[in-house]
């Protein structure tokens, strides 16, 4: 009778592969997080830019220097559709010539658009 050599992987070899995959994943996750944060920041900045543009238009049309968020956003207002990106908080009102500060982007970051 001929004996064939045992084929397959040992438990140690499989464990080494699992550890290597885990280490590679641990190195990749922070990179993905940075990309996600940058993407969220760009989307929030775009929202702030739209609000600033809408506020400027409102100021010109109405001859005032302050406008509330509700007068800018809505189906019949300057910004028709407005979506939150990362549970951020926008100011409730806008004053002409003042920067727009968006708070709580993903619960941690703040972004300012304008002056």
* Helix amount: 40-55%
Proportion of residues in extended strands: 5-15%
* N- and C-termini, Cα separation: 87 Å
Low-confidence stretches: none
Topology:
Layout: H1 11-62, E1 66-68, H2 69-72, E2 93-95, E3 100-105, E4 109-113
Antiparallel strand pairs: 1-2, 3-4
Labels describing this entry:
49% helix, rod-shaped, 2 helices, 115 residues, alpha+beta
Gist?
By secondary structure, the protein is of the alpha+beta class.
Account of the 3D structure:
This protein is α+β, with helices and mostly antiparallel strands and 115 residues long. It has one domain. The chain contains 2 helices and 4 strands. It has helices at residues 11-62, 69-72; strands at residues 66-68, 93-95, 100-105, 109-113. It has a two-stranded antiparallel sheet. The longest helix is centred in the N-terminal third of the chain and has 52 residues, at 11-62. The protein is rod-shaped. The protein starts with 10 loop residues before the first helix and ends with a strand. The model has no long low-confidence stretch (mean pLDDT 92).
């Amino acid at each position: 009778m001929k004996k064939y050599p045992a084929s397959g992987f040992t438990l140690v070899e499989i464990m080494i592969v699992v550890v290597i995959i885990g280490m590679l994943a641990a190195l990749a996750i922070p990179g993905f997080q940075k990309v996600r944060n940058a993407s969220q920041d760009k989307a929030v900045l775009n929202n702030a830019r739209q609000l600033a543009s809408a506020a400027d238009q409102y100021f010109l049309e109405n001859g005032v220097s302050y406008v509330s968020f509700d007068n800018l956003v809505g189906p019949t207002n300057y910004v028709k559709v407005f979506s939150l990106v990362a549970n951020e908080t926008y100011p409730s009102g806008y004053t002409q010539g003042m920067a727009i500060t968006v708070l709580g982007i993903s619960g941690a970051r703040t972004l300012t658009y304008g002056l």
